[in-house]
């Protein structure tokens, strides 16, 4: 299991490597990884929820400042992060999957007939904590993680059709219906009836606006309402 350090967006126990993609020379906040002038650390707000998230991250996502899975970990401190491996699944994750205290759902579109047979509606079981397992990577990476992880094949699937297209402006989705990881988290929290959905939605909006402003040189005014809302939660 990877533990996120409170002052770093990359898990503390993962060796760092140079970030060589676009924006590599930008001076970034070491905590939120946004350009220093767009730092969102002051707006971080945590929330409680009667469900948990386990993120299975592709290795490449651990180092991308544009990754949104870490926003879920920021808002929900119970979130756990595991690095994906096709042949060597994380032992800690396998232990949790076998723990009767949890009610795990693997979140992924059921596009194939054999996948549809695994679909289950969300329904809380008495005495168990619902857990949403998200495959965090690009769409191509997530599909590969889904298809090539035999140790995930026995899990029930949960899938949904988003009511609107993604508002994530940092990467181009393969299809209009594809959401980024944080947006999926928001929809799942809504499905579970968790007020934390609103916290994550505002935090994601601030992240999205600030990141795009740093990339395009635009203003951050569009996030003012969400910034003030998040600050009010800290009061």
Automatic annotation (TrEMBL):
GO biological process: tRNA processing
Organism of provenance: Proteobacteria bacterium 228
Enzyme class: transferase
EC number from the UniProt entry: 2.5.1.25
Cross-referenced PANTHER family: TRNA-URIDINE AMINOCARBOXYPROPYLTRANSFERASE (PTHR21392:SF1), TRNA-URIDINE AMINOCARBOXYPROPYLTRANSFERASE 2 (PTHR21392)
Entry keyword set: S-adenosyl-L-methionine, Transferase, tRNA processing
Domain DTW: 25-216
Keyword Transport on entry: no
Protein name: tRNA-uridine aminocarboxypropyltransferase
Entry keyword S-adenosyl-L-methionine: yes
Pfam (any one): DTW
GO molecular function terms attached to this record: tRNA-uridine aminocarboxypropyltransferase activity
């Amino acid at each position: 299991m990877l533990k996120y350090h409170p002052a770093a967006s990359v898990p503390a126990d993962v060796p760092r490597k140079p970030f060589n993609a676009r924006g590599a020379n930008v001076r970034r906040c070491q905590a939120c990884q946004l350009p220093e002038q767009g730092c969102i650390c002051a707006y971080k707000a945590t929330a409680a929820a009667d469900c948990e998230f386990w993120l299975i991250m592709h290795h490449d996502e651990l180092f991308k400042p544009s990754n949104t899975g870490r926003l879920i970990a920021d808002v929900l401190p119970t979130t756990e992060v595991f690095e994906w491996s096709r042949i060597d699944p994380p032992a800690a994750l396998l232990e949790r999957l076998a723990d009767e205290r949890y009610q795990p759902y693997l979140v992924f579109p059921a596009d194939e007939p054999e996948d549809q047979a695994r679909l289950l509606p969300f329904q809380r079981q008495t005495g168990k904590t619902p857990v949403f397992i998200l495959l965090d990577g690009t769409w191509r990476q997530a599909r590969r993680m889904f298809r090539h992880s035999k140790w995930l094949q026995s899990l029930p699937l949960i899938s949904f059709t988003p009511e609107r297209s993604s508002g994530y402006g940092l990467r181009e989705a393969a299809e209009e219906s594809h959401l980024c990881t944080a947006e999926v988290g928001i929809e799942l929290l809504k499905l579970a009836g968790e007020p934390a959905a609103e916290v994550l939605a505002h935090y994601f909006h601030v992240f999205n606006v600030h990141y795009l402003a740093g990339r395009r040189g635009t203003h951050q005014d569009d996030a003012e309402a969400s910034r003030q809302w998040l600050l009010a939660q800290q009061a």
